[in-house]
Fold each of these.
Amino acid sequence: MNAPDMQATDEGMPVSWYEATARTRVRLLLDAGSFREFVGPEMREVSPHLQIFDLPEQFDDGIVVGHGSLGGSRVFVAAQEGRFMGGAFGEVHGAKLIGLIRAARDIGTIPVLILFDTGGVRLQEANAGELAIAEIMRAVMEARTAGVKVIGLIGGRAGCYGGGGLIAGCCSALAVSEQGRIAVSGPEVIETNRGVEEFDSRDRAFVWRTMGGKHRRLLGGAEAFTDDTVSDFRAIAIGLLASTPSFGIDTLKAEQSRLMERIQQFGSLSDAVDIWTALGVPDADSIPAMPADQFISLANTLRRASHDAR
Amino acid sequence: MTNWQQSRAARDSRIEAGAKVARGKIVDAADATRLLEAVLRPGDRVCLEGDNQKQADLLSAALLAVDVAKVHDLHMVQSGVVLPDHLDLYDRGVAKKLDYAYSGPQSSRIATMLFGGKIELGAVHTYLELFARYFIDLTPNVALIAAVSADRDGNLYTGPNTEDTPTVVEATAFKDGIVIAQVNEIVDKVPRVDIPGDRVNFVVQSDKPFFVEPLFTRDPASITETQILTAMLAIKGIYAPYGVKRLNHGIGFSTAAIELLLPTYGEKLGLKGKIASHFALNPHPALIPAIESGWVEQIHSFGSEVGMENYIRARSDVYFTGADGSLRSNRALCQVAGLYACDMFIGSTLQIDLQGNSSTVTTSRIAGFGGAPNMGSDPRGRRHPSDPWLQAGKEADPQGSPLLRRGRKLVVQIGETFGDKNVPLFVDKLDALVLAEKLKLDLAPVMIYGDDVTHIVTEEGIANLLLCRDAAEREQAIRGVAGYTEVGRGRDVKAVQHLRERGVIRRPEDLGIDPLDADRSMLAARSIKDLVHWSGGLYAPPSQFRNW
Amino acid sequence: MEDLSFRHTARHRAAGSKNMAIIGVVASGNLEVLVERILPDGECVIEIKTAAEGFSDVWTAVVADFVDRHAAGGLKFSINDGGARPDTVSLRLAQAVRLMQEDEQ
């Protein structure tokens, strides 16, 4: 049963991925009218824990899962709602994603798109959340072993942090926009634990240099960078589904060498700008302000995604 | 024989005392406190900048550190009580009495200190009022000011944040006062002379630039659908029918929404060139899309805004700039401009009562008045006509003889019926009255009086108070746009219906506006990044507004 | 958390053929509205779970006005509220009805 929503005007105006709700992203990412939701909101599978904390529930527990078609081909989709509890994983939220990926694993021929928008695990459901992260990571690896591509799309308000960052690291490929951030520990946590000299969480330019979409693309943490529109994410998703190679032991070995080479090359550098310079970027300071299309061409000339890794 | 030049003699002896710590006019930062101890006398009236945006922070720290035996019981006269140091002066006994205009960041501490009797309050003023008193009965003996740079003769460049300085110096220097300036640097030649050196007695070079904060930047990402709806109502229901070209926007998200809707919604309504072309306004980043789209002919500013400097330089056709290319602001003159040369003020507030009186005071916070009462009042000394002014005057007094009928300035309060933390905008009794009773003030600190307000705009609609014939109608008109607040739910439904039939209250539907159309996609810019993009990269937002 | 429930007689059946719609997100100052076409044409039910306690008077007024102004017969509205203002609630309810007025794709 299709659950429409109405958050954006699709009258030819570009729709911001960052601004859109999870449902809007799914609706506009996929081929029109093709989305069918699993465990939709009308089933009211809400968190069994939030009531104890006197917190409001959401009918879909902050994640929309289902299937549809993208450019005519079948896909499974999961989209996290970053504005509900920071998109964080809880028991039901996690279970919906595990179930989706296991279904993909068992079917073997339908790829999965995960629209990450998460701060990690919900404190109120910590054990269930952590368990879910582990089960999702396992399911992703099993699915990939079975030949299923798992593509992550990152560009929402909450970024992709904590357990979400770990899952993202297991995906076949990632696309990220400028607003997106990918990491495990968040800026405030690093500052609290390591002090403000090490990481000033209020220096937003610094946060983005360290964890943001452009840096991830240049460093190799994400395969593709895209502009903040739903149509751009759609195009990049179609592209990654076509270009991402299949998975095997060689991929894992190549990934290990890539990471080892990366730390050798850049481990002693203290700021992202130094890394970009070392990568050969002509004017590294201009990267943050650079418009998306210009950045994409620059990134492609510097560093084609190394497809034998991941 | 009466000596009629005692102040002059006193000034000269103060300068002589201060000169011992100076080389020419220049004083080392390390000697700033000694300079103040030499120049100040107990009980002096001291103006410390204290502007809305820039702060003479080195001089305020130096003042805080004086030997209280030498300098005490000062009477501070300053626009803004902004830095913690400004209030520490009273704790230490350096200062005793205070006359001021605005205390936003210190609003709760100042309330505590006033209640606790730590500060002897002269009065809370508007900016223009306080400036006026600098020339009559609150003339400073010593002015502690902030400038960007100085040359060795004491000529000062105050730059984009010129703000109050020319006014403060005029009052002080020409009434035998002492002017001491802190500067970011001393140069051979200043880019332009904002304050001539013969008005400046001492210059202290600071090791870091004077404190200045962005106060007029509103992130488009925070604008809500409700604020967009109120903006649409204002544009279609007030700006358009009255043809408002000359205006002032009080800072806030509702007015930011209006600014961002001009190139889209305003354009759709065919209003370009007919409204919003001449502003008394700080350099709001949210106005960039409208400027770039050709809506704005001219802006005069009270002060500057961090990050806007290069954009302003590149848009000198619109902003006031010196021969050096940088902005020249002037709070006193912009306040006068807003009072007499603008046909409308529109802004937001925290509380509105049943007569339309509004206030930002709560029982635990006293923010002062700033410039709003000045902008948001009907200037009865105005004589030149304009279409909006005459139209509003006619609505207020339909029976009056046209040749003797006064015009009216449009004074619009715009906001959501429930504000931050879901606190209602509309109340039966203003907290300002409770405060006045508690502090035994002569007057309750009302920001804008009900009889100056011409319109109230909420998401429920527009109440035109000009068309109300008596206090009872006025009350129901207010209740009729007060939504689901207790005040709104207490409306006389029939009375409100009649008011709607007469056009005193207009709902969105009456203006052909569907609330479901009030969508963020209507904003010309939806993020700070979008504003940077609109400005062609000239706008450089401060760090706290970046997400890239 | 507070639970509230309202049952109203509706003057007109909600137009359109959609059976379900959902709008909004549960966050501070926001709410989600799930609407299902599962009641008889003359009935309208609105059930609310809200994080802001003590506002039942306001909800009563908002819901009554909503049912008065919109043809909502046959619809059950289920709301999870994160402390939204009344005007946001009215907006979401109106958005939900509009979605239901679309025809099933």
Note: The longest strand of chain A covers residues 63-70.
Amino acid sequence: MELLALGDTGYGDELLFGAWLTIKLALYGFLLALIFGLALAVFSLKGKGPRWWLFRAYASVFTGVPSLLIIFLFYFGGAEIVRGLLSPFGISVKLDVSPFAAGVAALALVYAAYLGDLIRGAILNVPKGQFEACEALSVPRRHLWFRIILPQALRLALPGLVNTWIVLLKDTALVSLAGLNDLIAQAKIAAGSTKEPFMFFTAALVFFVLISSLTLPLVRQIALRLERGQRRAGV
Amino acid sequence: MQFDFALAYDNMPALLSGAWMTLLVTFTVMAIGGPLGLLVSFARMSRHRGLALFGAAYVAICRGAPSLILLYLIYNGLAQLDLVREGWLWLLFQHAFFCVVVAFSLNHSGYVVEIMRGGMEAVPAGLIEAAAALGLSPRQVLWKVKLPMAIRYGMKAYQTESLIFMKSTAAVSAVTLTDLTAAANEIFYLTYDPFTPILTAGFIYWVINNAMRFGFEWLDRRLNRHLTLA
């Protein structure tokens, strides 16, 4: 057990540092995916026009390919992709893509595809009367989305959002394969130098199971808050 | 940023043999994890407190942990235990493929448990009562009514999980198995072309993904062919 101690004598602080990096990676990735997914949902909202097909193509690519492959693509080729995207504007940059940046970008793009679909479905399930009432009351567009439609869509999307968050959290483990010193990589280093792999990998496993299970009570709080305007059938 | 068709063509055999490994892992795990998950779902739904607790813990661990950690735990971690290293178990656990199948089966079955539980609970009570009223024994009700219905209800969720799981097998390269991702990586390290091998592998994954999706959709139609459209 003293191997898990903090400081120079154990690997506790290294593991905590790695865990913090894992959490940061998951949070950044999820927030970006949420923003981008929301944009995709609103972009492809109306009918089955060209915008919808564009979104379908995007989603098909990013949900049809393992996230690990996308992480590798951005890690190995990210610098060249950015250079290629910026060169038409006459901007030339020299940059190195860190594993963290590649991980955040890959997770954000992959999960934006899943979240876009989810949020789109949720917005379409908000009763149409809400849109019509806004129009009748000439509510400004900004308020229409942020005060009226999205809060209701969020309630509908919440269970799916939670599932996606947990899947994304577990997918962060893959970024260690691109060389990020996250929890898994730290556990692997510690396991290698102490010859105690069983203990360190169990510690990493406990961390993930704990975070996943801690999410549920938190979500219940959020769900209660989002449902405060709903009438419940008395049983 | 360019795609080198000649390089992709030259390396096709290596990539395809990697794809074969991906498929082998996927279908072996589905063949083992499916029945295993069904078995544990009975424990999860059991009236016996201990069994139900075991089922809940099994789901929390197998579903809550990334498959990469389960993989490391089994491939690197178990080797540390004398019980495993010195007994006959070592004959099995020394093989990366065996460890991969065990780790991913645990992960996959964790999802199957919850899908089956959801499906079983969705079977209408009236259907079960009707079966009982017709004189079917509890065992017959389970095998001829509840399970077939639960499988139909759970098919969509199982499709989603299977497709996600197929893509997550990309992590097996971490324990020396050469699957499609590992094959693409090897080509990258030989040529330093960051796009061609990964995009080609991505395309093969995309084809596998959609082929599996069509397979599931066909199965879904076939299982529900008694439902005619109104």
Note: Chain B has a mean pLDDT of 90.
